[in-house]
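User: two proteins, same treatment. go.

Assistant:
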Amino acid sequence: MAYPISKAALDAVFFRLTANNEGFNETYNALASSYGVPANMSIVFSPTPPAPSPNFSRGNVSPLDIVETSAVKFPYVTLFVDRIFNENTQKFHQFSGVVSVGLAVLLSWPEGRVLPDFESQAACVEETVVTIMNRARNAHPGDQDWGDLEGSGADIVYNGELEGTRSRVERGNQFWSQLLLFRMTFEVHSRGEV
């Protein structure tokens, strides 16, 4: 039997991004008015191929490269594993350590001239990601033990480490764009066969 390591953390984040009434689109749209941006976020999170999405993919592919090679809709989101490190924090596990998951969001504005406000949409996306990642699973606000997701055989704990960076806003072709990159760290303990 296969025991997931990085897939467990990746699936846990995907589960949060797509949660009913609490996912990425719903959270962004609920926050939009406080940032003065349109509440029109509609990322199509396709769980697995062959159902391609016009604005989401799994894998550490630069969204800018995707834009150059495919027909896409904006914003474009990619979800990927950035790194794993087996720290052997629990004995007799196949893997017991950290998994870093990345989430890249490419924003785009189809304007020919500089807009007066590029900041608000990026700030709304940042708050959306922070809210989704830190939303407690149960009534206790400190509960970030994401458990054994769908019987994967791996215990997952989000340790609260979340980092976000923004590229500068740049003009390319007929639009302005900005890349927001988030990294989240999880502790994953997978028994496996050692």
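Protein 2:
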Amino acid sequence: MLINVRRLGRLVVAMAVMLSLVAACGSESAVDIAARPEERFKSFLNDYNTALNDPKIAEPGKKAEWMDRLAQYYLPEDRETVKVGFEGTLGVIPTKIENVTTEKVSEVGDAAEVRITGGQMIIGAAGETPPLEFAEEASPFTFNGNPKLKKIDGVWYIDFVPKQ
């Protein structure tokens, strides 16, 4: 129980940081489950950006639909935890994520690490705050540095809290 409370606390902190540090671009209508790890992570960022800017996010059920979709990018054991974070960020503050670039740092067997090498996030109306450059900040989507991914049955999933 204490571990779950800690994970939830970390998620809330990470999502708060995310509102200050994120970056992504564009959107894709379907999750590419066969992608390389860096493409899979970028696909998550694209979907997250689309969810952040969905004009229907306040409609009944739409936020839950996005939370479910975004959680599918994470390991099964992390999904309920990350949904709580998405609940607190989607539709809260206008946020635009753009020009993201990613690269694979390493891939060994069914484990990979990726890095966000570029992109920015604009919080609020354009011009209210300066864009935050993602390549200069740590990833708010995971703990312990760069995003880690694990492959299960041929699909790459984000490991929210990598187990040491």
